[in-house]
Structures are given as C-alpha cells and as structure tokens.
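Holo prediction. Input below; ligand is KG4.
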Amino acid sequence: MIVLGIESSCDETAAALVRDDGFVLSDVVASQIALHAPFGGVVPELAARAHLEAVGGVVDEAVRVLPHGLRDVDVIAVTQGPGLIGALLIGVQFGKSIAWALDKPIVGVSHLDGHLLSPLLRRTETDEVPEFPYVALLVSGGHSALYRVDAPDAISLLGQTRDDAAGEAYDKVAKLLGLGYPGGPLVDKLAARGDARAVALPRPMLGRDALEFSFAGLKTAVARHVEKHGLPADDAARADLCASFQAVIVEALVTTSLRACEQEGVRRLVITGGVAANAGLRALAKSRAEASSVELFIPPFASCTDNAAMIALAGVHRFTRSGPDALELAVYSRDPRRRRGRFGADGKLIAPR
Ligand code: KG4
Ligand code: ZN
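Structure of the complex:
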C-alpha cells in the first residue's frame, strides 16, 4: 500500500509518499519562512494563499517517483487539524479533489499523531525505529506536551504546557532580542557560545511530580532583564543571555520527560517537533537518558519538523484500522485531545487519567 500524505496546517506545504511498512518513497516540503519572516510570525491569511499556490506543484513532485504518478497511490491522507483553518482547508480540499476525481479512499489524520508516529518512519533500509511503548516529548512552535504511545491507535496525553509552547518561547525571545524569525535556531546557535550562568532566570516551579511545562514566566523574565539592562550590547552578551534562557528551557524539558518515563515505567523516550533540532536539548537529553538507562530516539530533522511523511504514516495506520473517511471530512483548529487521558482515533476521551 502506498499512501500520499498532504500537510498544510501551518507554514509548510508538504506532500510525501510512504509505504505501509513506514518506508519513505518521497518527501517534499515547501517552506513559507521567507514569506512570514518580515512579520516575525505566521500570518494566517498569507499562509493560506501560499498553500494554494504551492500545493499542486508539491504533490506533483512527490508522486513523480511512481510510474503512473497519482494513479499508483492507494490512499490519500490529509492533515485535518489542529492548525490554521484557512491553511488546513487548502490541503484537505486538494486531497478531496484527488480522491473524488480518481476514486481513491481518503483519511483525515491529526497533525499531532503525525509528530508522535514520526520516529517510525524509515528513510533508509537500515533505519532503526523504536518499539512500543514509548514516552514522546513533542516540542514545536505550537505544542509542548508529553505522551505515552502504546500503539498507533493507543496514545495518551500525560501533560502539556500551561501557557507558551517551547518553540513559541524561543521565537518570542528571539524577536525581543531582534534576532529574526524563526528564533529557535538563532538562539540555539548563540547559546552554544554563551555562559549559561551569566543571567539568573527563574525556573518554572510546577511541583515535584508534575508532567507539565510553563514558559511564559521565563519569557517575561527575559523581557524584564532587557528592560532593566537594555538590549545586550555585543555578541558575547547576547550569547550569554541566550545560553541562560536555553539552559532553563532544556532542563525543564529533559527533567520532566525522564520523570514521565519513570512514572510510566517506560524506558524509551522519543523527542520530536521542530525544537528537537536544538543542540542543547539533544546533548542534555543524551547524557541524562544514558544516566537513567532510558533509550533515546530523536528522529532525523526532516522527520521532526513539519512534513507530510508523518501524515502519510499516520494515514497508513488510520486506514488499516478503520478504513476510509467520508468525503465530507472537516477541518478543526484546536486539538480535541486537550484533556489528560487516553483517546480513541476519533479524538474522543476513552479513559481520563
Ligand atoms: O515542528 P515545527 O517545524 O513547526 C510547528 O510549530 O509545528 O517547529 C517550529 C518551531 C519554531 O518555533 C522554531 O523556532 C523551533 O521549532 N526550532 C527550534 C530550533 N529549530 C527550530 N527551537 C530551538 N532550537 C532549534 N535549533
Ligand atoms: Zn507540527
């Protein structure tokens, strides 16, 4: 079975082909970063228009590896949500058009399921994938949450951020320091050269057993620091502030993830989402996981950031389990699984935690 995935929930237009064994046949991503950069964040209406312009070409390129192109696709998987409604609609309508015109089955999948299953993608024949169950830390521009993944259709939310997502905090601090957009990679690079003890910033206090995050206070503390001392005068001062900020975030992410592994009795940790690219996070997660005898999996960057291969893979599992969706399938902006607990494939709460 070959599944075509289409992703358009935020600022990447993406299409990919994935086989039912998780092997990636093609993976095409058109990024809108340059379009939104002047605004310091994603502008929803511009995103939707750019998706509309890009989606045809991106899908064309993804199916080029098949002898008969789209006709060789067995199932179409589209990101149904969560995300920007106008943006989601473009990918979903495009997928529906193909499904209708070529009489192919379509399934709607959750963007978050895509991220959580992304470590199961294989890009070379020798790629290793984690076994179930695993604890997954999903850290991106829109999400910071911990999940327990027992199977593709048995995912439980363990806890999440009370306010900002980690990537959002990075982007806001970068904007504050005038570094540019998206801020994560820029702050990460500067942090590598700075002294993490240079600026005292508050660590979020959420209780010893909490599986939650909070990054809004930290962002405010950076803003206060800048108000009081002015913008860092040179590169060294900028690097020190970035390093101090990053140390607090990374410590919270790693400590809480390993706490989740401990509480769940699971010795496998996956880190995914755009922030998984962070060098400081990777280094600390590696050393702490080793010390706690937890196996660590961080998928390659192409699988961590928004992509359509993860959507196609989530589609493989969705289709195998429950067959096609009706062509009327709708988009949604907010994650229906916001409560802690175990959820069914349709997003309905099965067992609260
Ligand atoms: O998963 P992603 O591509 O898109 C979604 O938000 O779904 O994640 C993008 C986020 C942005 O906030 C970006 O600043 C952050 O990931 N990011 C990083 C790094 N690379 C990307 N944050 C910290 N360090 C990085 N190296
Ligand atoms: Zn994402």
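The radius of gyration is 20 Å. That is the main takeaway for now.
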